[in-house]
Specification:
Strand order of the largest sheet: 2-1-3-6-7
Distance between the termini: 45 Å
Structural class: alpha/beta
CATH superfamily: Response regulator
Number of domains: 1
CATH architecture: 3-Layer(aba) Sandwich
Strand content: 15-25%
Number of helices: 7
Largest sheet: 5 strands, parallel
Shape: globular
Length: 149
């Protein structure tokens, strides 16, 4: 029963991503869900730690390669500190998938081809609606599309 009540609450989301194009894409897809609370974006481990302590997000979307450290180390410390946020790792570094799951990630999504699955999983977690036509992050990586603006 308690889990059901938690699902009905708005979930604050913390996106930890240093790539501006990817961060903008994910952020734009998360503006639509009705059950999404605030969406904060950190581009470094230092910023992420500060926001985790202030925001206490329900969901953390974590990249592994960050300018000031490794996302796996952040994941380990999040779990060691007893932070119970759902953590979805979204990274191109698929060789670390098993390590991430072993250290407490709830799901792992490959940036190169699982961007739609990430958004769908977030929508399901926040009980929101899926976007009509999500862009493909892999196109950003290949340079097939450019961010507008």
């Amino acid at each position: 029963m308690e889990d059901t009540l938690y699902m009905l609450e708005k979930k604050d989301i913390l996106l930890i991503e240093d790539d501006r194009h990817i961060g903008n894409w994910v952020s734009s897809k998360l503006e639509a869900p009705s059950n999404t609370g605030s969406i904060e974006w950190a581009s470094s481990i230092k910023q992420a730690r500060a926001l985790i302590n202030i925001q206490h997000p329900g969901l953390i979307i974590l990249d592994l390669h960050l300018p000031d450290g490794n996302g796996i180390e952040l994941l380990k410390s999040i779990r060691k500190e007893g932070i119970t946020s759902t953590v979805y790792v979204f990274s191109i570094n698929t060789k670390y998938k098993n390590a991430c799951l072993r250290h407490g990630a709830d799901r792992f999504f490959d940036k190169s081809y699982e961007s739609d699955q990430l958004i769908k999983a977030i929508m399901e977690l926040t009980d929101g609606e899926s976007p009509d036509s999500p862009d493909d992050v892999q196109k950003l990586w290949r340079g097939d599309i450019r961010e507008s603006g």
